[in-house]
Amino acid sequence: TLHALLFDVDGTLADTERDGHRPAFNQAFADAGLDWHWDVTLYGKLLAVTGGKERIKHYIDHYRPDYRKPAHFDELVADLHQAKTRHYATLAARGGIPMRPGVKRLLVEARAAGLRLAIATTTTPENVTVLLEHSLGSGTQEWFEVIAAGDIVPVKKPAPDIYHFTLEKMELQPADCLAFEDSENGLRASLGAGLKTLVTVNDYTLDHDFTGAAVVLSDLGESGVPNRVLAGPDLGQPFV
Ligand code: XBP
Ligand code: MG
């Protein structure tokens, strides 16, 4: 039986990447006097790697062969990433990153139905709390029994570790839960933990491979047009 809903954040609860994380990275690079700039298309490719620090290192290794790493490169990356987190928080605190359509209604109804809620994400914990506070509503962090985020586990998605951590904390079995994801990396993580998974796509993840998902939806409804089942039962039909 279903006891709990487990949510990814980036791309699932909110479209955080293109106009949230991406400009925050770019601002941090510019502040540091670096000529690194991630446009919308390049950022889509960089999303193959989860985790901001991991993404910066991947960019240097694969897109900037000219760059000579300084002796303390890991510290530089950590400093850049801290600056990026501050910029992201400023943006989110201005209400600049709204929840995706249908998300708030689903959470409210799930709570009313007595379901337990949790978050399992690769993003930095501060990013989650500021986003919930300003886009979902004041005090809504309390809706989530566990907020598992960032470096709390050594390996990020597509590894299942963050979901294992969440299940262990809640003392739940995978069969008790439904996971919500938006990306192939996220789905690999949830499936790796044995979780039934509902996928809602976004512009960056539309063409990902969602083999193994219980259902793939355009969105959770309330977007102004009926949502669609993109893969799974009742193909093409509105879901809610
Ligand atoms: C989210 C991510 C994160 C954010 C940046 O993936 O990949 O890296 O882009 O977060 P998922 P930080 O939705 O699969 O959890 O910069 O805070 O690491
Ligand atoms: Mg995601």
From TrEMBL:
SUPFAM superfamilies per the UniProt record, alphabetical: HAD-like
Gene3D superfamilies according to UniProt: HAD superfamily/HAD-like, Putative phosphatase, domain 2
Xref: InterPro entries: CbbY-like (IPR044999), HAD-like_sf (IPR036412), HAD-SF_hydro_IA (IPR006439), HAD_sf (IPR023214), PGP-like_dom2 (IPR023198)
GO molecular function: hydrolase activity
Pfam families noted in UniProt: Hydrolase (PF00702)
Highest taxon, organism lineage: Bacteria
PANTHER family in the record: CBBY-LIKE PROTEIN, XYLULOSE-1,5-BISPHOSPHATE (XUBP) PHOSPHATASE
Protein name, entry field: Phosphatase
